[in-house]
Design goal:
Largest sheet: 2 strands, antiparallel
Mean pLDDT: 84
Structural class: mainly alpha
Strand content: under 5%
Number of helices: 26
Distance between the termini: 62 Å
Helix content: over 70%
Order of helices and strands: HHHHHHHHEEHHHHHHHHHHHHHHHHHH
Low-confidence stretches: 1-19, 67-76
Radius of gyration: 29 Å
Strand order of the largest sheet: 1-2
Length: 553
């Protein structure tokens, strides 16, 4: 602590006399954050140490009268809150827009704020509700930088090294939220508008990177949304803007593999949309379709099918059987049927979706290419390797042309080609595809995203087939840990990966470890699929075999 204090005293003595600096440091209890803010204020205003100490003590007496409002947990709070208040009062006098922006930031995440985060909200459907000061900051980057520069001068915020992004110390962020608590209703909803408006569509370049950057802000407004709905809209969830906000947040959470948060947002959105527009409105049907996607990812096949069929019936009635939105739900039903092993029904859905997409958008459109890729998966599962490869290569060529070689949709097709080559025994080609997909997905989505983990699991399968047992075990354990963190240990996907790991251990003659994992697999499959399902029966037989081999090697 003495080293830190000496540095801060030196910093203050650049502006003030050393005796005054020492007196102020003692008053601020040597807290670097409080000292830094006091020094910034005095440098900007030309205030002497003695005058600052007078202002500090005056402000402290006023805050003491408001103790019911400011709960000061310990004496250190006095230093931080008081220096913060002295600086903020002067900031508000100097620039009201900058002061308002600081209020807004209290309801966003404190670690990363950039200009482009704000601009999409100017084109949001509730733009008329955005206050004028925000319009000025968000519509003119020079005004934004002016506000940020002023906040930085008073040490409210800092600039990230070699970037155009800003961050705020967590303690100051905490005090901002408490200080502006009375304005919670306005600022929390504005924060929701900012974040929701910034959620990128999947057609945007590098959308997944932007989603990951936006995620901390989503988590922040997610935690404030209930209070915002209560205070801003008096629990009226049927207001369209609230429903739309929840829907957009649900989309981002679903894309980022945060299933619990996604389901919560979708259900809020559905309740609101049904009350605002009715159960068969197109906005309601879009939410229902996305809930179907989420349930399918979660392995809730019955719930997923119910959502898809409800959405399909409604869309066919509202838009007609050949509308592009209808065709998207047709394609989703194809994926569901394929995952359920209903190959005939899946192929019928895919071919209907493909014919409609080619007619509506053309053969090279990204939506058409998604259906082409799905047909490739289906043909591969049916053992039609030539037809599968033709579909995959068509999808890959189109994706690279439409989105580029490093887009997430391209990586999915690359991954699927890896699966096909592995099934064909083309191990070198399969590994090349998997590694390309893995590298791209780790960069775009991160190492723990569920799509990344799918490729990790596929690499485990490949290495096992190649006899690279150590590498296979590493891949399986990484995939298992990641899936359990994302979905929980009771989800079918981590159970499938655990089953792969159990088979690997059995192949390596590690019968005790294999039996331990097969036992957990049997428990999981029994709960999800039932005791009579072939996967449950096979895992149970494998467990018995490993127990016998462990006792009589």
């Amino acid at each position: 602590m003495s080293a830190i204090r000496s540095i801060n005293i030196k910093t203050l003595s650049d502006v003030f006399d050393s005796i005054g600096s020492l007196e102020l440091v003692k008053l601020l209890q040597g807290l670097p954050l409080a000292i830094n803010q006091a020094g910034s204020y005095m440098r900007e205003t030309g205030t002497t140490v003695s005058k600052y100490i007078d202002s500090y003590n005056h402000k402290w007496k006023k805050l003491m009268k408001d103790q019911n409002y400011f709960t000061l947990r310990e004496s250190a709070d006095r230093s931080v809150l008081t220096t913060w208040t002295v600086s903020f009062d002067h900031l508000r006098e100097q620039n009201e827009d900058a002061a308002n922006f600081l209020k807004l930031w209290a309801f966003l995440d404190n670690q990363d704020l950039w200009y482009e985060l704000l601009t999409p909200s100017l084109h949001h459907e509730i733009f008329d509700e955005v206050p004028g000061w925000f319009v000025r900051c968000a519509s003119d980057e020079l005004d934004f930088k002016k506000c940020m520069g002023l906040l930085s001068k008073y040490s409210f915020i800092n600039t990230k090294f070699e970037s155009s992004s800003f961050f705020m110390h967590s303690v100051l962020h905490h005090w901002c939220l408490h200080a502006f608590e009375k304005e919670n209703a306005i600022m929390s909803w504005l924060a929701v508008v900012v974040v929701v408006s910034a959620v990128p569509s999947q057609t945007m370049p590098d959308y997944s990177l932007l989603q990951r950057r936006l995620l901390p802000h989503c988590d922040r407004v997610f935690s404030l949304l209930e209070q915002s709905i209560q205070e801003t809209f008096n629990y009226k969830v049927d207001i369209p803007s609230v429903s739309a906000a929840c829907h957009r947040l649900g989309d981002l959470y679903s894309d980022q593999g945060k299933m619990k948060e996604a389901e919560d947002m979708y259900l809020r959105a559905l309740t609101g949309s049904e009350k605002a527009w009715g159960p068969v409105h197109t906005s309601t049907l879009d939410i229902i379709n996305n809930l179907g996607i989420l349930y399918e990812i979660q392995g809730k096949m019955k719930e997923a099918e119910d959502m898809y069929l409800r959405a399909l019936t409604g869309k066919e009635k509202a838009w007609g059987p050949a509308h592009t939105s209808t065709l998207r739900t047709v394609g989703n039903l194809g994926i569901l049927y394929s995952n359920q092993g209903k190959m005939k029904e899946a192929e019928d859905m895919y071919l209907r979706a493909l014919t409609g997409s080619e007619k509506a958008w053309g053969p090279a459109h990204t939506s058409t290419l998604r259906t082409v890729g799905n047909l490739g998966i289906l043909y591969s599962n049916q053992g039609k390797m030539k037809e599968a490869e033709d579909m995959y290569l068509r999808a890959l060529t189109g994706s690279e042309k439409a989105w580029g070689p490093v887009h997430t949709s391209t990586f999915e097709t690359v991954n699927n080609l890896g699966v096909l080559y592995s099934d064909q025994g083309k191990m070198k080609e399969a590994e090349d595809m998997y590694l390309r997909a893995l590298t791209g997905k780790e960069k775009a989505w991160g190492p723990a995203h569920t799509s990344t983990l799918n490729t990790v699991n596929n690499l485990g399968n490949l290495y096992k087939n190649q006899g690279k047992m150590k590498e296979a075990g590493h891949m399986y354990l990484r995939a298992l840990t990641g899936f359990e963190q994302a979905w929980g240990s009771g989800h079918k996907t981590p159970i499938d990966v655990r089953c792969n790991l159990a088979f690997l251990y059995k192949k390596m003659a590690m019968f005790k470890d294999a039996a331990k994992h097969f036992e957990l697999v049997v428990q999981g499959y029994t709960k999800i699929l039932g005791s009579d399902h072939w996967k449950t029966v096979d895992a149970s037989n494998q467990l018995k075999s490993c127990e016998v081999l462990n006792e009589h090697p």
